């Protein structure tokens, strides 16, 4: 499959800068969420996943593996990640232990149908162009056996916003609704919106089940 403009962007020097900004310890990751929302990422994970029986997990766009490492510390096993930026994959493999991280595209996942109990994104769908969003959601839906989980910028409408001086690189929207509109077999299990403490922007956590 031909690379999208967004994939080329994230494989460039900008992707390297993003990787360097977001290489965090687990304590730093939780502190970031607490500073932004008044609740740690660990607390969010427990709220959404605490009562689920999950055998394996795939993260799309895992960068250096922060989110997967936190899930591992919380007791989850059989963790997998896929990341477009090769240098992030290299760093992820040194940043984590016993987590399966591969280089590749979310538009062409190297996994069979229904391979994972849960597939998730965190701040990834916001960087997918509206013309491509259905394609990546189709792949996520394909490899998920049971659950799809997301934590993304929220807006009732799918709108572009400037991103560090770049246009057409970030969109916020109602991604849970996009999933359920595209796939009738998906049901919304849980949804919660998190307001930033410093402004009126919202992020949305959502859990969908086949």
Short characterization:
Keywords: Methyltransferase, Transferase. The protein is an alpha/beta fold.
Number of helices: 8
Q: Beta-strand level of the residues, as a percent range?
A: 15-25%
How is the CATH topology named?
Answer: Rossmann fold
Count the domains: 1
What's the total count of β strands?
9
What's the order of the H and E elements?
HHHHEHEHEEHEEEHEE
List the uncertain runs.
Answer: none
- In order across it, which strands form the biggest sheet? 3-2-1-4-5-9-8
By helix and strand content, what is the structural category?
A: alpha/beta
Residue share in helix: 25-40%
CATH architecture heading? 3-Layer(aba) Sandwich
Rg estimate, integer Å: 16 Å
Shape: globular
**Ends distance:** 27 Å
CATH class: Alpha Beta
Instruction: Please name the fourth-level CATH homologous superfamily.
Output: Vaccinia Virus protein VP39
Main β-sheet, in a few words? 7 strands, mixed
Quote the average pLDDT: 92
């Amino acid at each position: 499959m031909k690379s999208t403009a967004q994939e080329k962007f994230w494989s460039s020097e900008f992707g390297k800068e993003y990787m360097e900004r977001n290489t965090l310890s687990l304590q730093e990751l939780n502190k970031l969420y607490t500073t932004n929302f008044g609740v740690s990422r660990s607390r969010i994970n427990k709220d959404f996943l605490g009562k689920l029986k999950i055998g394996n997990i795939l993260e799309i766009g895992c960068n250096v593996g922060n989110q997967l490492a936190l899930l591992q510390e919380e007791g989850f096993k059989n963790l997998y990640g896929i990341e477009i930026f090769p240098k992030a994959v290299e760093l992820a493999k040194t940043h984590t232990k016993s987590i399966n991280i591969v280089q590749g595209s979310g538009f062409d996942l190297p996994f069979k149908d229904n391979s994972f109990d849960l597939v998730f994104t965190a701040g990834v769908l916001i960087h997918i162009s509206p013309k491509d969003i259905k394609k990546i959601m189709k792949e996520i839906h394909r490899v998920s056996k049971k659950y799809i989980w997301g934590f993304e910028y929220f807006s009732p409408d799918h709108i572009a916003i400037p991103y560090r001086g770049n246009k057409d690189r970030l969109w916020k929207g109602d991604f849970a609704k996009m999933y359920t509109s595209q796939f009738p077999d998906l049901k919304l299990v849980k949804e919660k919106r998190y307001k930033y403490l410093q402004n009126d922007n919202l992020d949305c956590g959502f859990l969908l089940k086949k």
